[in-house]
Structure formats: structure tokens, C-alpha cells
Amino acid sequence: MLNINNGATQLKREILVRIAKLQLAGNLTEGVHFIPREMAPRDGEALRCCVYHDREVLRMRVIARLGHSVEDYDDEKKLAEYAQEALEREKPTEPMLTVLDEACNACVRAHYLVTNACQACIARPCMMNCPKGCIEITGGRAKIDAEKCVNCGLCMQNCPYHAIIKVPVPCEEACPVGAISKDESGKERIDYSKCIFCGACMRECPFGAMMDKGQLVDVIRRIMDGKRVVALYAPAIAAQFRAAPGQLECALSAAGFSRTYEVALGADITADKEAHEFEERMERGDALMTTSCCPAYVRAVHIHVPELDSCVSETRSPMHYTAELAKADDPECVTVFIGPCLAKRKEGIDDPFVDYVLSAEELGAYLMAREIDIGGCGAMEHVRVPTATGRDFARSGGVAEAVRARVKNPEKLRPALVNGLDTAGMKLLASYGKNAAAGKPLDANLVEVMACPGGCIAGPSVITNPKVASVQLKKYVESGK
Fold first, then answer.
1. Contact between residue 60 and residue 102 where contact means Cβ atoms under 8 Å apart
2. Nearest to 300 by CA among 343, 341, 241
3. Is residue 260 within 8 Å of 253, Cβ to Cβ?
4. Cα(209)–Cα(70) distance, rounded to whole angstroms?
5. CATH of domain 225-479
6. Element (H or E) spanning 104, and its range?
7. ω into residue 340 within 30 of 0, thus cis?
8. Read out DSSP for 300-345?
9. Is-contact 457 394, C-beta < 8 A?
């Protein structure tokens, strides 16, 4: 997994901060034009062929952060026009992802490469185990015939010197459902009929070519217009900032949100309903139920594992129930879910109770633009304190534990975890679906599925190392405040 601390994410966050500062100053349409120039000064070191190419790429990155698809890019159109359109937009547009061709490295097809570590040993296991006979020793080193190679990887697996490596295409490698492939020019394209919006490609592309379309401009506009904008923050967000319980609420209030709701409240509702649904399903003779709070997983089942469709819980997600609570309290409020997930943007567009979805990166940039230090904020008292199991939804295994804590006969619940939807995770889902459809015995009757390994705390838009976030979440869960 690409470390969250890298140049591509730093570029993204700097653009977000600059846009937020300009908008807060009432100067977005006038000032947005200068962002590429300021970030790529004429006397600076160019990342590409020249500083002018760097500026053009930055220009398109700004367009994505403004919430537009760069596939619709018009080089005759000024950034001020894109900014004005963003300020006049009534709602976010689909799809949530956009691919920046100019940034895409057009990586060569995934292949295996023999390095200098090759010893041309007499055992030659790479040659002996190659099913296509595409390896020969020449010039004191093994050589792979690319025309014959089928990328099985047996040569790499058998080399005692680890001299053969796989050169992947990171976005294609990360995609668990084969939704990304090259077009005739060698650039990557997303097949949205296959995409589950897990965000793995966005997280793993080292060139930052896979981008989510921002909604920060929309939210800031609603706040500046004096609307009652409420923040619905996911438990995973509480783990992104090193703050005591109540400090995040204080920071959000200082940032202009009229009210905050901890989405763990919705998680409690989800857990209650899933526990009841599980008991009903088992009573009627169902062999299996899966959780439903991860929208990337639910979409993966609908598109790629339809035989498992009937096993997915009909209970809605914590985001939905929390937004429903907010709208019940104030029907005219503007609801903003804040989380680390790309798939939640799609779920938000489809949910009438959710108006906008911000990422952890966008919230972090917004707070930075407003010069709000969460650590220096006081702790607001929670009006409604969720359970510890509700807050623990953000961790892999937390949903299953919350359901177990609520069923009448927990000893009858046999949980299993699919901790991350990589290709292996998708195969595991397919096996559950196939066996359930065939009526074969299963090792579990409740399967929790998280698209991100480790859970929501490792989502594609996090700003804190998942290991650190896990420790922070544990403290938050145990605080009881």
C-alpha cells in the first residue's frame, strides 16, 4: 500500500487549502487562476519537461478539486469559469472519479523483469519451471522473452536470489474488479459499469492521476450563505485527528457547522437492526447474512457476485440513519457526511437525506485554511453518546462484534471477516456466494466485509497512518465520552 505521506497527496492537499482560503476570502474566481503559477514558479524545478507543462497539469488538478471531471476539460476555458460553475452548482455530479491523462505515466504492461541480482546459477529454476519456455541464459543472466511470457510469475517464485521482480501497473494491480485497463494510447481508463468506487486506484497511483472530484467548494458556499450546515462525522474521522472526545465537535463548530452528529449514533441503529434481521433470517432457515454498511462491498456484490445478493443485509448504513436523525431534527438543514471513503460519495448522491460528502483530506484542508487547531480547541459535551461498539464500526471486525453484542443468543452467531476487497477478497466473496447458492455447509453465518484492509480507518482519503489511527480509535472507543 502506498504510504499516505507522499508527493502526490501533498500536492492534492495544498491545492485544497489554497482553494479554501480563496473562497473564504471571497476571492475564488479571481484568485484561482494564479494557483498553478504559484505552485510551479518560473524559477522553480520542473517535475516534467518544463514548468509550463507542470502548470497545465496543476490546472487540471485544480479543476478536479473544484468538483469537475477532467475528461470534460476545455483548454480554452479559464479556471475562473470552472470556479464560477462550481459556486453555482446545486449538487455534485457523477462519476466520483476522474482520470488525469496528463499525469498518467502510461505505465508499461505489467511484466516480470530480471535484475542484476541474477547469478545465472546452475540450478536454473526459473528456466526449469517456466511453462512456456520463454527464459534463456545469455550474457551471464537470465532473459525473459516478452512475446512468449504469460506473466504467470513462476520464475519469480522459484528464483533463490529474488532476482526476478514483477513490474506492476499500480492502479490496475490495486483494482479488485478489473475495472481499469489501457486504451489505445496506453493511458488508463475506468469502466464505471464495473467500478465499485473503493478508491484503491486513487490511493495507489504514484502519479496522482486517479482523482476524486471535490465537494469542499459546495460545502463552504453553503456555510458562507448562512445555511444551517450540519456535520455528520464518521468514527474513522475521530481517529484521523489526535483529539480528545468533544474537541472535534468544537473545531467543526468554529469552522461554521451549526451542529454535529457522531455517525456512531447511526452505527448503533445499524447494529440494532442488523442483529434483529440476523435473528429473523436464521429463524427462517437462511444459511448466511452479510453486513451492508460498506457501500463499495454492496456495489461489488450487485455487479460482480450477484449470487450473494440475497445474503446482503437490507439494513441501511450508519451514514443514512445519522442523516435521517439530522433531517428529523431540522428538515431544512444541509447534511454533510465526513469520512475517509470514496464509495460514500456515490452512496451520498443516491441518498435523499445526504446532501454532501467530504473526505478527511478536505476537512483537514478546510480546518487548515481557517487556521483551526483541533488540539487547541475545548471539548464540547456530547448531547448523545453512542456505544463503544458503535464507535468501533471503523475497525475491521467491529461491525460483527456490534451485532454479536445485540443478538439474543450470541453463541449461535458464527462470524467471519473479509478484511479488504483485493482480488483474494473478491474470490472469497465468490466462494461464499457459490456455496450459499448451492446449499453447501458454510464456516460462518455472519460475514462482515470491509473494502479497505483494516476497516474505514484505512480508507483511500485518510490523512493519518492506519496503524496510528487504530491506536487513536481505541482510545476514542474506550473514553466513553
1. yes
2. 343
3. yes
4. 10
5. 3.40.950.10
6. none
7. no
8. HHHHH-GGGGGGB--PPPHHHHHHHHHHHH-TTPEEEEEES-SHHH
9. yes
CATH code: domain 111-167 is 3.30.70.20
CA distances from 334 to 123, 250, 323, 364 (A): 68, 19, 10, 20
In this predicted structure, what is the pLDDT of residue 1? 54
- Cell reading at 97: 472519479
Per residue in 65-119, pLDDT tens?
Answer: 999 999 988 888 999 999 999 999 999 999 999 999 888 776 777 789 999 999 9
Phi and psi of 45, rounded to 5°?
Answer: -85, 125
Residue 372 cell numbers, joined: 483551526
Q: What is the dihedral of CA 354, 360, 365, 369, to 10 degrees?
A: 60
Distance (Å, whole) CA 382 – CA 378:
12
DSSP letters, 391-442, are HGGGSTTHHHHHHHTTSS-GGG--EEEEE--SHHHHHHHHHHHHHHHHT---
Of the given ranges (40-49, 116-125, 187-196, 417-426), which has the lowest mean pLDDT? 40-49
Mean pLDDT of 177-194: 89
**Strand 111-114 with 188-190, pairing:** unpaired
Query: Residue type for 400, please?
Result: A
- Return the bridge partners of 419, or none: 450
Q: Are 244 and 46 in contact (CB under 8 A)?
A: no
What region does 382 belong to: left with phi over 0, alpha with psi -120 to 50, or beta? Answer: beta
Residue 167 pLDDT class (50, 70, 90 cuts): confident
Radius of gyration for the alpha carbons in the chain, expressed in angstroms and rounded: 24
In a 3-state reduction of DSSP, which class is residue 447?
A: strand
Question: Does the pTM of the predicted model rise above 0.70?
Answer: yes
State the cell numbers at 224: 458562507
pLDDT at residue 476, as a whole number: 86
| pLDDT tier at 322, thresholds 50, 70, 90 | very high
Domain ranges of the chain: 7-106+175-213, 111-167, 225-479
| Measured distance CA(409)–CA(242) in Å, rounded | 37
- Grid cell, residue 145, equals 522473452
Q: What is the pLDDT of residues 464-476, one digit of tens each?
A: 999 999 999 998 8
Express each pLDDT in 323-341 by its tens digit.
999 999 999 999 999 999 9
